[in-house]
Every structure is written in C-alpha cells, then in structure tokens.
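Internal QA ticket QA-208
Title: Verify multi-chain structure generation after dependency bump
Assignee: T.L.

Test input:
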Amino acid sequence: AALVTAVVNQKGGVGKTTTTFNLGVALQRLGRRILLIDLDPQASLSASAGIPVAQLTASVYQALLDEATDPLPLIHGTTSGVDVLPATIDLAAAEVELVNMTLRELVLRDVVDKLRPRYDHILIDCPPSLGLLTVNALAAADQVLIPLQCEYLATRGLTLLLRTLTKVQGRLNRNLRIAGILPTMFDGRTTHANEILAELRANFPGQVFDVVIKESVRVKESPAAGLSILDYDGNHDVARAYIQLATEVDHGR
Amino acid sequence: AALVTAVVNQKGGVGKTTTTFNLGVALQRLGRRILLIDLDPQASLSASAGIPVAQLTASVYQALLDEATDPLPLIHGTTSGVDVLPATIDLAAAEVELVNMTLRELVLRDVVDKLRPRYDHILIDCPPSLGLLTVNALAAADQVLIPLQCEYLATRGLTLLLRTLTKVQGRLNRNLRIAGILPTMFDGRTTHANEILAELRANFPGQVFDVVIKESVRVKESPAAGLSILDYDGNHDVARAYIQLATEVDHGR
Ligand SMILES: Nc1ncnc2c1ncn2[C@@H]1O[C@H](COP(=O)(O)OP(=O)(O)OP(=O)(O)O)[C@@H](O)[C@H]1O
Ligand SMILES: Nc1ncnc2c1ncn2[C@@H]1O[C@H](COP(=O)(O)OP(=O)(O)OP(=O)(O)O)[C@@H](O)[C@H]1O
Ligand SMILES: [Mg+2]
Ligand SMILES: [Mg+2]
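Actual output:
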C-alpha cells in the first residue's frame, strides 16, 4: 500500500507544486505507481501536469464534500506517467464549507485511505496556508516534505510550521513524521543563500535533505509545456536532483 | 485623507510583502505620511520592518475581532519612517472567526476608515489566498496593486484574481479600481521572463506599470536587517524603481 507524503509550507512560492510534480514523476521513473493530489484551489499542479483545468466538471472538491463520491473516476492519467486527482477553483469554497462539518480535519483521510491500495506513493500538494485544507493533508499523510527557499523571509515560518506539525501529531495523526526540509531554487553564487543553508543545517540537524534543488529557468519553463523537468530536459541538474530525492523518499516506504 | 491600496495576489511568493514595505518607504521619502497594515498571519511585513513580532501582545487581530478596539494604540512607528499595524499568528484564527460574523467582509473597512484622516497613503499586505482576509482588504481599499513574477505559474492566477475583483466591485466596493500589475523579480537575461512580460503587456494593455522591479539578492538580504532596500542600499536599481513606482502611485491620490 502507498506511502502518503504531504508537501507543505505556508510560505508562498517556495516550490511546493514544482516539487510535488517533479518528485512524483521521478518516483514513477523508479517504477512506482504514483498518485498526485492537488489540494490548492490555484490548481497549479493540475495545470503543470497538462490537465485542462478550465474544462473539468469534477475534482477533489467533490470527493471532499460528499463522502459517498467514489474518488477513482475523478483521477486523470497524464503523459508523464503519474495519476492526478485534480483541483479546480471550486476547492476555494471547501475551506469555508468544511468549517461546520463534523470531523472536518479528517475528510481527506477517508478519501486517501480508499486510494492507498492502488499506489506505491501518494503526494499531496498543499496551498500556501495552514488552514483546513492543509490540516486535512497533514491528518491524511504518513510524512511531511517541506520545500524551502534559502531566503530570509522563507525561513521565518519554519518554526511555526513545525509547531503546527506537533499539534497535528498530538491530536489528529500520531504517526506523522518529517521526511525532511528540501532546499529549493538554490543560487549557490550568492552568500545569502549559502549562509541561510548553513544556518538551516545547523538549526535543524538531520532534518535537511542532502539533495539541494538549484535555481534554473528551465524549471520555470517546463510547466508551460505541461511537462516535468524530467521530460522537458532530462539531463538537467535539477532533473537528476529530483531523481536523487526520489531514491531517498522511496527508501522511506 | 488617505488613498488606500491593497497589495494582492493569491499566488504565493510573488513579492507582495516586499512591494508593500519598499513602496511604503518610497512614498514616505516623497514626504507622505504612511501606514502599512499587515494582513498576513505570517507577519512577513511586520518582521521586515524590524518589529519584534514574537513579543507583540496585540495586533490587527484585536482591531478586527472587537470593533470597540481603538486601532491607534496598536500602531508601531519604525526606523524606516513608516507606521505599521502589525500582524501576529493570532490572525490565522480570524479567517474562521470572521465566517460567522455579520457583514464579515466589511470588518476591516471600519478599522481603515478610522485611520484614513491621519495618513496620506495606507497600504495593506495580503496573504497568498482569496479568503476572507483578502476580501476584507479589497472591500476597504480604493485601489489594488498586483505584484506578479514573470513566470508561467504566476500568470495563471491573474484571470481568476481579476474576476474576483469584479465580484467585489459589484457587491462590496463599487469604486475599487486597479492601480496596476507590477512585474517583480524580473530577470531580463532570460527569454522566459521577457516573453511573459511581453504577453502581459499585450493581454492587459494599459494595466501593467512601466516600472519593472528587477531580481536582486540585495532585496532578499534587506528584510533580514529589518530594513527596506532604500535604507539597505539606496542607490540600487530596485530602490530607484520603487521610488519611480511611488511617484506614479502618489499621482493617483
Ligand atoms: N528550482 C527552481 N528553479 C527556478 N524556478 C523554480 C524552481 N522551482 C520552482 N520554480 C518556480 O518558482 C515559482 C514558485 O514555485 P511553485 O509555484 O512550485 O511554488 P509553490 O510553493 O507551489 O507556490 P504557492 O505557494 O503559490 O503554491 C514558479 O514560477 C516555479 O516555476
Ligand atoms: N526584486 C526581488 N529580487 C529578489 N528577491 C526578491 C525580490 N522581491 C522579493 N524577493 C524575495 O522573494 C521572496 C518572496 O517575496 P515576498 O515574501 O515579498 O512575496 P509574497 O508574495 O509576499 O509571499 P507570500 O505569498 O508568502 O506572502 C522573498 O524571499 C523576498 O525577499
Ligand atoms: Mg503551489
Ligand atoms: Mg507576503
């Protein structure tokens, strides 16, 4: 059955969607059956994977709001070889609608548990907040992967995020663990990035992946083509880095 | 009385906080009285301005949840010359608590209207979402400034944002206008950024500022010192660009 990884960071623009998609494809290259769940109303993940979001008539929203809904027919295959349970803007309403539901934090867990037998890995892309959608992902997951830019403003939220994880572990998901903190968009030429990375490794020993994802314009271009970096430019450093990350994450199964 | 500008984009990491702070300081250099309101529970703006967020006992949260609260004592002066109504993590609870309040979209407008007589400009930094906090900012504002990275994933959300603005104009704030779309973190060496910028100007004629904010590591360093780019490195291209933007925004008063 699947290992479920929530890709989380309330700080915006740190590479959550890019990591979910490229790590997912890299795991598929290792021969695994992969499902990506888009839990962000922006639907960046769904669009990056080439799914025509504007034409969708159903999405993860239906699976969340009606427990009788079978999630399987909502899942799309993609040219990159991973399956995607897509999002649409309807999902933005879910935050408010979930507020008054009983066991509102555990709605996604029921959906994910129905899908675990069919996959080796399930990755969940979260929105830039610690609201109900992200809490649902943390309650449904076995582990958390935290993408992080090596920039001052991005590091500020880390302590808050780790405190939230401890709360979720205590009340909703006792076995939730941290897979690791993944440095993203790393520009090794700047002192700022190198200083922040060194500080991260010092402050969070053993929790920062050895793999570092470098900054590259090719990564920005690939989602416009509906492709992962592995398909867009397979020999690129970043493609290799995501393969290396996939090998580490896969060992955690 | 003040011109109120909401700095909005649900896409994360596009430069909302950086623009609110640096534009605010640039407007202050033009001799204006400036208030910045931090409406993001991450409190990036408050931290960037050097406010000790962890020690705060009161913030914009108190002003939102209790209309009897006088917002003035909650405002901090800063070394950069602008006033800040700071945020703390308590603000994260506001999204849920506002849901069941009457006229929940207009709570911030009451706070802002009390402060308008004391300032020439009020800028509001929004979180990366289109939830109740952002809707409150749109209802309280005279105009919207939209920071945008010239990257594929960042441009996807623009249509949705403009559709949301139209809804807010129809139901909550008839006079709300768009000050403009501000290209941020622009790396002129890449074809990708230049193509996206050209596309933006073609698709949104007259709505994209002439000023473009370039990518620079100095901008990433400055908040770590609690300084704006104008104080951190006043001759830098980005400092001049924010002064140019301030002159344009100030003409709109
Ligand atoms: N290694 C990289 N090098 C260069 N650009 C990158 C890299 N990884 C991601 N990006 C770009 O940075 C931007 C932010 O990445 P992404 O959208 O994946 O972040 P996010 O955390 O999912 O954002 P949000 O908080 O809005 O959901 C995107 O334009 C993406 O293409
Ligand atoms: N012109 C620039 N050049 C280089 N880096 C920049 C520039 N403007 C902003 N940044 C950096 O990019 C990151 C994102 O900027 P910022 O936090 O202001 O975006 P935001 O839209 O407010 O993010 P969020 O969605 O999390 O609120 C920060 O680390 C910031 O220091
Ligand atoms: Mg994302
Ligand atoms: Mg911000």
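Spot checks passed. Residues 18 and 60 of chain A are 19 Å apart (CA to CA).
Status: verified.
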